[in-house]
Design goal:
This protein is an alpha+beta fold. Helices cover 39% and strands 23% of the residues. The radius of gyration is 22 Å and the shape is elongated.
Length: 131
């Protein structure tokens, strides 16, 4: 039986360094998910698409990546919302433009938003393709 020697520093670099084999694989996954998410996300102003980012982290448990957006409405866009009533919080009236007209209202019945799983579906696609 051959003697096997483990070198802790080299093993740590291989498994836990962003430049190591695992780190490069994770970064590749993250870049692909980010690219597909940006292609799938709905675009009105482009702010949500521009805010999608991939970050690579390391903690005592190992490496991981996050792909997402810090915009406060990103989760509503991804998960959707039920119909709800919108009321003004700082003024007496809501004021907004619709079809070229200025609308003033005490409350508005929002019809809800259909979910756009712009992150989940690319994650499933990329991971399934590499399995």
């Amino acid at each position: 039986m051959a003697k096997v020697t483990f070198y802790d520093a080299e093993m740590d670099w291989l498994l836990n360094n962003p430049s190591g084999t695992v780190g490069r694989w994770l970064s590749s996954l993250g870049r692909d998910i980010k690219r597909l998410a940006k292609a799938k996300v709905g675009v009105r102003t482009g702010a949500l698409r521009a805010s999608i980012h991939m970050r690579h982290f390391r903690d005592p448990r190992g490496q991981y990546i996050t792909v997402g957006s810090d915009l406060r409405y990103a989760l509503l866009h991804h998960e959707g919302s039920r119909p709800h009533v919108i009321t003004p919080s700082r003024a007496k009236l809501l004021v907004f433009a619709s079809k070229g007209q200025i609308i003033r209202a005490h409350r508005v019945a929002h019809p809800g938003t259909r979910a756009n799983r712009y992150l989940l579906e690319p994650m499933i696609t990329v991971v399934a393709a590499r399995a």
